[in-house]
Design brief:
Elements: H1 3-21, E1 26-27, E2 32-34, E3 36-39, E4 43-51, E5 53-61, H2 63-74, H3 83-103, E6 109-111, E7 115-118, E8 123-126, E9 132-139, E10 144-154
Antiparallel strand pairs: 1-9, 2-9, 3-8, 4-5, 4-6, 4-7, 5-10, 9-10
Helix pairs in contact: 1-3, 2-3
């Protein structure tokens, strides 16, 4: 995986949150590269990538952070784990992945439909030869932290 494939996801995340959620996220730690089991927060969105690059992008965060983000996105307060929360979260991930794919000019990338899950103590397995790049992010005003995680390979 190349840095020019990761940076578009960081840029797209910041841009999407600024324009769609009135929030300015920022990187809150060093990128991590992990294979094997990786731990996630309890709110997870996964979107597959196919075409000349295949892989996936994950957005994961605590549920209260997701509720705050989706509330800003839809313009009304979300207070429970309803279909509005799940749909809004998936749509934000879809916008981020689409914007990032558009910035990776050298490749044709197709996006799958996002899948959104909720559950405590989730773990995901990453192939040792195709590790996840974990991008820790934070939101101002102590709203909370989240991760963007990307795994991809050229076909």
């Amino acid at each position: 995986m190349k840095s020019q494939h990761i940076n578009p996801f960081i840029e797209a995340t910041i841009s999407t949150f600024e324009t769609m959620c009135n929030m300015k996220p920022f990187r809150s730690g060093k990128l991590q590269v992990r294979g094997g089991m990786i731990f996630t927060y309890d709110f997870i969105g996964i979107l597959g990538l196919s075409g000349q690059i295949r892989g996936a992008v994950i957005m994961t965060m605590p549920i209260p952070v997701g509720m705050r983000i989706v509330s800003e996105f839809v313009g009304e307060t979300i207070t429970d784990t309803s279909s509005d929360l799940m749909d809004g979260f998936g749509e934000i991930l879809n916008i981020i992945a689409g914007a990032a794919a558009a910035k990776i000019h050298d490749y044709k990338i197709s996006l799958a439909l996002p899948t959104v899950m909720i559950g405590k103590d989730q773990q995901m397995h990453a192939n040792q030869h195709k590790p996840w790049v974990i991008i820790p992010m934070s939101l101002p005003d102590d709203i909370g932290n989240f991760n963007i995680e990307v795994a991809m390979e050229e076909t």
